[in-house]
Amino acid sequence: MIHYLSYSVPYEKEDGDVKHDWRMAVGEHGPGVLEDLYARKEFLLKASKLAAAGAIAGPLLANVERAFAAVEVASTGGDPVATAAVNAAKQYSGITLTTIRETGPQAADDKLFGGPLWEKLTGIKVNTVEGSDAEILQKQIAAHIAHTGDFDVNEALGAWIPDFADRGVIVPTDDYLTKYKGSASLKDIHPVYRSFATYKGKTWGFSDDGDAWALYYRKDIFGDPKLRKAYKAKFKRDLRPPTNWDEMTETSQFITDQLAPKVYGQGMGRALGNPGNYFYFFQTFRSLGGRFFDPKTMKAQINNATGLKAMEYILAELKASPPGSAKFDFLTMWTTWLQGKTAMIYTWPPTGRISENYAQRDKAFSFLPKSKIVGKVGYAPIPTGHGWVNGVVRCVSADSKNIDAAYLFCQWNTSPSVSLQRVMLPYSLRDPYRLSHYKSKKYGSLWPGASKYLKALCQAANDGVIELVMSGAPDYGTSLDRAMTAMYAGKDVQSTLDATAKEWDVITKKLGVDKQRASYLNYLKLTGSTSSNTAAAKGIGFKC
Amino acid sequence: MAETLAYGRKRRPVRAVSSFVDRHFKWLLVAPAVFLVLALSVFPLVFSAWVNFVEFDFSVSSSHPWVGFANFTDNFADPDWRHSIWITAILACSVVAVEFVIGLLLALAMLREFPGRRILMVIIVIPLFISPVVTGGFWDLFLRQPIGPANEIASWFLPGTVTTNFTDDGYWPYLSVIMADAWQWTPFMFVILLAGLSSISSELYEAAEIDGAKPRQSFFFVTLPLLAPIMLVAITFRFVDATKLFDIIYTLTRGGPGTETYTTSYYLYYQGFERFHIGQSTAGSWMFLIALSFIAYWLIRRLLKPVEA
Amino acid sequence: MRRRTRGASGAVPGRFHHSVARWVFLAGYFLFLLVPLYWAIVTAFKPQDDLLAQPPVWFPAHPTLSHFDQALNRLNGLAALENSIIVAFATTVLAVLVGTAAAYSMARHATGGKHLAFWFLSGRMLPPVAVVIPMFLLYSQYSKEWIGLRPIDTRWGLIVLYTVFALPWTVWMMYSYFRQMPPELEHAALVDGCTRWQALWKIAVPLAAPGLVSAAAFAFIFSWTEFLFALVLTTKNAVTLPVVLAGYIGLFQGNLWGETAAMTLISLIPALLLGIFLQRHLVRGLTVGAVQG
Known about the structure:
Number of domains of chain C: 2
CATH class of the largest domain in chain B: Mainly Alpha
Number of strands of chain B: 0
CATH topology of the largest domain in chain B: MetI-like fold
CATH superfamily of the largest domain in chain B: MetI-like
Shape of chain C: globular
CATH superfamily of the largest domain in chain C: MetI-like
Helix content of chain B: over 70%
Order of helices and strands of chain B: HHHHHHHHHHHHH
Strand content of chain C: under 5%
Oligomer: heterotrimer
Number of domains of chain B: 2
Largest interface: B-C, 119 and 117 residues
Largest sheet of chain C: none
Structural class of chain C: mainly alpha
């Protein structure tokens, strides 16, 4: 304990034992050398003592404590899905389940919250393996090829499900859903996220993340009278969040011209391998009506006129961004945003939470600085409304030695009540994806603009276009990712896109043209695969 | 005599073992090493021979039907493969050249005793103890816009503000890799060359000076010829290692921008372990290995010649 | 009057030795060497805000140890450190023992003629990437089927593999060392009734101690810094430092620069200690191999 107290917490300027003490008490202790010093009982006791004593710490501490309590209530009768899972899992008490999550806050979700709670409720231990994004995919495939049974609960981006399902990495969960009464859990998941876990007519796990892109903009900059006057004079329309890509590039460039180098119009994460790079192209390309393949020949279409236009928009955005943007990873992107140096970014939902300093309170989120723009952030749809949507699925490994227990953990962890608590955790990188999340009053009260934020996310899901969910998706994606970094560095756009299209054709041929066609046609049936079959277009969106 | 017999009887078992050991001594000594190398170096290669000719690809299927030479042709059809071979050759030659020149100059500069020499020697050797992955990592930190100080430092020396993107602009990705690799491995060259220089007897120089040779002439006619075998050793070892360039690429550029800095090792790793096109990657590794073997064979023969003599 | 110094400092005439150019060059090289290293080290102590500050912060106003805490306790750093140390030491011992035995045999008894020595040395030319995929398959699947052991993600699996790849170093170094060591003492011992085994371990090896230390130093460096095999053959139990460090880089939310720097610093310490003590032997080891070659 002294060990912790002697470190200066980098972003807490206040001194005093209470501050350090409750910070540690709020469950930042993870697996580590000194974990034994802090048994759960002691923690809860201390937490409640401090809750009584510390006024400053009050709200946050009470929140997390309440989160733990709420989950326990839900799992013992409050939420039928969670309760059924817990009751059925008690017979497996004593075993260990291994999950795999991305290093950092994602892993903290299992290590600090889900894992300890599950162990308390069922006696099953949870061990979490961490790695970078690339490593996670790699490790799961490698474990499957070698049949090591390393992982019980797999983590799959929506794009990986077809390959995971076809290659037998994961098991279908329809039978388990019936057996353990989990079907009710699927009912209030937004249709666009549900589709990620569905493949070839079967269910392959539980959707667990609401990754829909929205546009986050600086209300203060957009509301600045001088700027508004100049903008109106130039463009004959009001300065407002852009509604199409022309407006986006014009507005970004305008702000950069006016305010650089203090503020730039936008600054996105564009580094190679950053998960976001080819997403930008996929999003823009499809919002303009683009289609990835010609279903008859399965020839890639990304190098047609729409593709060229999409790339030109992206390069124009890059021009309006801070120098070095082509190498921004998400850390740098979010840091420049939080320090107020960019006026707009469009990206994943955690942006809303970190802008309000909600996430940075927790040590697990210590990689980001404090926000200088609290209260100044507005939420809007992506230009054209058709923003990027991807999903994450918690699925069950086929090589697991405890398939039932692994399944039950997933059912419990993603159940409406437990998932609600998880998406509200300060350090969570999981975002709202259920109707109950979007309508949650608790969530809506986390910061003044939270309910507007939820509404924006809900709308984003309604109109969004999903990632490429077909066999070989990672191959197509990384091929384009590499090409984009080359174009950022100045390579000619048309020839690079042509070369990439050729690479795509080689991939298609290698995987089997007919097989890919079937996979692609399957994909086209999913909600949100094009800008004309989004959830809203199909009439199945939520009323936000 | 009875004593000796009794003595002999007691001793027989032990002598049998130790005489066995003695007779087959030299073979027993090399046996563990040979066995290990066969089991974990040769055998895996031989084992992977069959992978070359079958379909072994996660995205395609779970079975492994025979596909003949398809894996090999897949590699040649991929422009990234061809590019990576070119890049590997260029980078290997460049880093060896750079490290050799700097290493030689450094060895010359550090040759004579001076106060503080020992401390500097320790400092010079430090990079050898750092994993190349880590080196790539903190060079990335150093060079990365906008958080690294590289631009700021450059701005101190050059007019105006420097805003180069060291891992993206023009030829800078290659130069960054060369810089990081030179940082890592110049000490290696330095140590070998220093040893070589130290072993040249000073009498030769005195004799040359007596004969009226100027310092520059004695460098070219005394130092260089005598240093030549050592230089060859240093260059050979370093070149062979440089062709395997992987670690620094992994953390400094990740092969980017695009596929600009894909060395052959990185390309094969990427194909085999990030995309799981195992058949294709194995075929590529075999080709790479065979090509390297030819080069290495030629170089080592030249190295071993003096030993045989 | 010219000072007589050891070795061929005649290669470096006094005029050059004391010239400005030499000092400028040395200064330049040490700056090149130390500045990125300094930056890496100081990053370990910077609070998060300073990490991405512009203009870059050369010396943090409020240094912090939180990155060390995070890296060691929450991001697997301590386990990786432990694994690296164990693997490196075990590999060193094994590689030196096995390598010395083989080298002695080849040096004293010309076992296998020139071909065996060449064969061992050629192991250095083998690119790890050629072996990594079959090793992965063997370690994870086939070894279980054939010999009932599964070395994947184990320390001993890594140790054995590293030994094989360290052997070219140790064999070659000891081979060169033994060749330049006069065999008279061993012959005398043999005449006196020693077995060859005793002659090796009681006479030759102690005499070759400096060479052993050099060989050990190289074996240690190799296994301490090896990356590709560790990356592919370990998942959670046997991860080593380089793998864990590389794992901090390339994350979705951005590289964990502070933690990376902290672990770099930590991994430097044993390496530095060894460097200070073994620097002489390193030089000698490379020398012997070089001069003999």
